[in-house]
Amino acid sequence: MKRQDAIHHPHERALQLMDRQLVEGLELEDRRWLEDHLGACEACSARRASTEAALTALRSISIPVPHGLAASTILCVRENAERLKSRRARNIALIAGCAVSWAAGVASAPLVWRICEWAGTTLSLPPIVWETGFFCWWLAPAAAAGLVVLWVNARAEREEMNGRLWSGPRPDGW
Length: 174
Description:
Distance between the termini: 57 Å
Largest sheet: none
Radius of gyration: 34 Å
Helix content: over 70%
Number of domains: 2
Order of helices and strands: HHHHH
């Protein structure tokens, strides 16, 4: 089995080097090895010739580009960049709001714990009840913030899609 691998290995290397030569070029040592191999191997040489013929045929094909395609593409890219900038600004404000909310929650936690404990003992409630009230105090702002995030993102997506719905091809073909 090793002998068969040794026979096919140079051909695999030649194929890889031919592909790499077309894309990025080769170093001098690899280029020399490939040229030596192609001089000795008819199969790899034929493969190289057919690849070059295919590339030459592809390069000779002319593809008509509709008028205004470049301008339309530039406009779309600029609009997308503006959308990304507005999203980034919106996200920064959201992160700042979350940070302030979190800091206020941490700062007021001891006071709220004492209030919940006092209310629980005054009303003779079991500890699980007033501890659940404290937990809900922590959960309510996070849930409200999550709902605001969902609402803002849904609204932003609706605004982005406004006027962008597919209505068929335009008169210029696009």
